[in-house]
Amino acid sequence: MQNEKAKSAAITKKTHEPFIYITKRNDLPRLKAWGIRAAVLLIAMLFCALLVMLLTGENPINVFSSMVEGSFGTSRKMWNLLQSAAILLGISLAVTPAFKMRFWNTGAEGQVLIGMLASVACMFYIGDAIPSWLLIVIMFFASVIAGAVWAGIPGFFKATWNTNETLFTLMMNYVAMQLVSFFIMIWVPSGSMILGVVNADSQNGWFPSIAGQKYLLNVLIVALITVIVYVYLKKTKQGYEIAVVGESENTARYIGINVKKVILRTVLISGALCGVMGWILAAGTAHSITANSVGGNGFTAIMISWMSKFNPLVMVFSSLLVCFLQRGAGEIASTLRLNSSVGEVLTGVIILFIISSEFFINYKVNFRHKKHKEEVK
Amino acid sequence: MNQVAIELRNISKRFGRIQANKDVNLSVYNGEILALLGENGSGKTTLMNMISGIYHPDEGQIFIGGNEVSINSPHDAFNFKIGMIHQHFKLVDLFTAAENIVLGLDEPGKFDLAQVSKRVNEISEKYGFDIDPNKKIYEMSVSEKQTVEIVKVLYRGADILILDEPTAVLTPQEAGKLFDVVRRMRNDGKAIIIITHKLHEVLALSDKVAVLRHGEYVGTVNTAETNEEELTEMMVGKKVALNIQRPEPENPEDRIVVEHINCHSRDGVKLLDDVSFVARSGEILGIAGIAGSGQRELLEAIAGLQKLDGGSIIYHDPKTGREENLRDKTPIQIRELGVRLSFVPEDRLGMGLVGDMDIVDNMMLRSYRSGRSMFVQRQEPEALAERIIEQLGVVTPGTDVAVRKLSGGNVQKILIGREIASAPTVLMAAYPVRGLDVNSSYLIYDLLNEQKKNGVAVIFVGEDLDVLVELCDRIMVIGSGKITGVVDGRSTTKNEIGYLMTKTVGEEESTDAE
User: Fold this and answer.
1) Reduced to 3 states, what is the DSSP secondary structure of residue B14?
2) Mind spelling out the 3-state secondary structure of B177-245?
3) pLDDT per residue over A145-173, tens digit each?
4) Nearest CA in chain A to B73
5) Which of A5, A13, A248 to mutate to test the interface with B (most CBs of B within 10 A)?
6) Does the beta-carbon distance from B351 to A251 stay under 8 Å?
7) How many Å apart are CA A337 and CA B21, to the nearest integer?
8) Nearest C-alpha of chain A: how many angstroms from B10?
């Protein structure tokens, strides 16, 4: 018997324990989690400084200070930062209800663009016939409907036939871009394919300047959307239904939620909000349109929404940070005469660090104990 | 010929507090079929996973061909010529049979699919398989896919084959064909272990039967020297007194009358087959059966979650005396009829609760719709959460903890607490004590008894026969979607229920096919 025990012990020894093993943690206090995020951001900055030194030989402090300069150097630069952060934030908020429901809306780019197209079309066709305020209101509804339809088509297919929404919404982006090109071709008789500023003289359908700031209204509207989306997701019955459907469709069915209806409703809301952002871009920022007017914000918004864990308030900071990095990157390129890619590399590195910090928050990395190792020998 | 192919000595395996296997001894000779028999959760699959290198035993030894070995990975198992055919097939749908068979094999020489097909055909001919090596998996029936899995293992030269509940997915005719193949493999000198809980299959096919119960090894008998009664008794064991209370039902009256309901899976397999029964107020109706015999579909049909092909589910309202047919109604419609139906599903975190939401949000699942406001109100659910935590002794740091982070017993207390808070007239609970420790289990029995005393019609789906026999007033046994019997809880025995569980209607057909 003893002999047998010894033998079985020999077997246990033979099993090898990996050098590093990863365990899930589920009891990290919120404060500590934010501490980890802050620490990771700091490490990311240091890493970037080192990278810049090695790649370019520039003093990293110069690089960072010119990044700050690029965003906050003048009041104009600051307003530009605020306006681009507002657009990015607005689109992030728009995709969030769908994301919370685990509906991967990758079509924000197209939904915003189609909303923008609807507004610009209103400016183009009825721009001079009615007063500016009425035009802006009509543009709003046109954009909302356009965005909702653009999201609603894949949403309907998902709810009815369970098609893959990621691909469907993605492909709708290209349709939207082609539609914009098509209309520009009609609107611009010269064939240059560039639509100039619409209603440049009358400024009909343009947002008015408030307190002398032409982007202030943009920022205020997005601030309002932030509050609305926050309350909608956290405090309303519909927001609660979205969370249940997203976490577990089975539970939703069990308590009698009509899953199809919730999917369709949420996707329509998401698309409508994208439409609103298209309206702001048309009336408040660009007063014109190109196929690339949204400029990838529809995709960056996906990342912002995720990074912020679908929390609208955290999104305010995430979108500010990302816009700051983007603007700073541009500044580095021009003032230090570095290749413009350096800035993009730094942005990428910092965001990668932020995203990977989630890994350390959710998992604990354990190393094999030395003591155990000796035991095995 | 009669050489020991594989021998297990005193194998034990624990997962945390759960002893999955304890001191299991087994030996299989070449040219022999061993049936491994046991209820759900008796440790059959864990044991086989240790042989196939997925787990490693905590204690004990494994001998192959007389030599002690350590099987650390499925690759090791492959080197020892052990092949396992899993219940759930592991095949690439878009590949052909031949491609799946060689997938992952690192054979020296040129990759030649024609050569592979030739060898597959040789194997098929030898054992009597019916297989087209060039057919794609997605075009195949379940039985053909299983054939591919078996050929895959044989192609790799396995001498020890493990089949995990191979007939669960087959029609009786297909099962008969499979048995012929298995017998041919045995005659060829292979050692075969077949996991099953169908007694008639054990008796028809195997040479020896090893029985596990609650992870412990009960013994091995020669099939020729045993019978159904002996095997059932080995499987379910002697009666264990649990001293669960069982008050007499008071004025039971019919609450739910189910008549002739049927339903199909998407593949056309019958999940419920002409099921009829009555659940009465003030009574606990137990439902016993091998897992996956239709228990889930039955409860979900009553809860309005399962489409039915026919029949009726009549609810008798105790207050108004009205009769409502619940069939084809949604859960919301059922509630709007005033039917206070509570349901504790088997999948607690995936269905009854939302794992990532906190306790208060989970309380709201049932009640959030009340009121006309578009905003949710949290005071009442918060109060309910605190009441449940206090009354049922839920161990939690607070009401704002995600339920996923609580232990199994606490999760279940929260779910049952919520379901009985709405003063139900019908309470359905599927495996409510699965994974719970003894104290929590008794608390759940007390809660069910309390509901029974309040005149609730309780339906209890259980797996532990000792509990069913002590707790329930009547026990209904379900097998392959059919009711195989309804017995009185006070006079029945575990053996009687065990026999009804393993008896499948339509048994005769499969014996014909052999």
Assistant:
1) strand
2) HHHHHHHHHHHCCCEEEEEECCHHHHHHHCCEEEEEECCEEEEEEEHHHCCHHHHHHHHHCCCCCCCCC
3) 999 999 999 999 999 998 999 999 999 99
4) A15
5) A248
6) yes
7) 70
8) 9
Taking a C-beta distance cutoff of 8 angstroms, is the pair B191, B6 a contact? Answer: yes
A39's tokens: 């620490």
CATH of B4-236, one of 3.30.2060.10, 3.40.630.10, 3.40.50.300, 1.25.10.10: 3.40.50.300
Does the CB of A8 have a partner CB in chain B at under 8 Å? yes
**Residue the block writes with tokens 């109060």:** B383
- Check if CATH label 3.40.630.30 holds for domain B240-340+424-492: no
Residues of chain A in contact with residue B375, where contact means CB-CB under 8 angstroms, are: 235-237
Where in chain A are the domains?
78-336
- Domain definitions of chain B by residue range: 4-236, 240-340+424-492, 352-422
When comparing pLDDT for B227 and A122, which is higher? A122
Chain B residues touching residue A258 (CB < 8 angstroms): 330, 332
Read off the pLDDT of each residue in B142-163 and give the average, rounded to a whole number: 90
The two tokens of residue A261 are: 């209806």
Q: Which residue of A has its CA nearest to B368?
A: A237
Check for a shared fold between B4-236 and B240-340+424-492.
Answer: yes
The nearest CA of chain B is from the CA of A192 a distance in Å of 49
Write out the E strands in chain A: 20-24, 363-367
Of A12, A14, A250, the CB nearest to B351: A250
Dihedral in degrees, nearest 10, Cα atoms A43, A47, A49, A51: -170
Give every residue of chain A whose pLDDT is below 50, as ranges: 1-16, 371-377
Amino acid at position B182, single letter? V
- Nearest beta carbon to residue A7 from set B61, B72, B352: B61
Q: Domain spanning A78-336 has what CATH number?
A: 1.10.3470.10
DSSP per residue, A5-19: HHHHHHHHHHSPPPS
Report the residue of chain B nearest A250, measured CA to CA: B351
Q: Could you tell me the two tokens for B424?
A: 């139900």
